Amino acid sequence: MIQYTGESKNWSASYTITKLNREDHTDQFQIRYKGKDPANVGRIKYKFTGTTMSGSGEQKLSGNRDIVSGSGGNGAIPLEDSTIQVIVEWRGHEEEMELSTGASRK
Fold this sequence. Notes:
This protein has one domain (2-99): Immunoglobulin-like (Sandwich). By secondary structure, it is an all-beta fold. It is built from no helices and 8 strands. A 4-stranded antiparallel sheet has the order 1-2-3-6, with no helix packed on it. A 4-stranded antiparallel sheet has the order 5-4-7-8, with no helix packed on it. The chain starts with a strand and ends in a 7-residue tail after the last strand.
């Protein structure tokens, strides 16, 4: 399993890749609102970009702090020392964060 994590002022995010066998894997992207009142956040847009993957979505936070999306496949997975850029937009605000595994950069 490889897990990338990062955070900004109001959000934290993780991207987890689980290898099922030599070829197949699943991945899960999760964003968490760190504030006290998620019901007031409303609709958020997010996008993430890494070396071998990208994704985006739009969803309403309705009392729940988390948005989770997942998929599976057999494509390339990012290197452990790479980073994933995440942008979250809500109510006229925008924050960026960089997710990493904590692996040493060479």
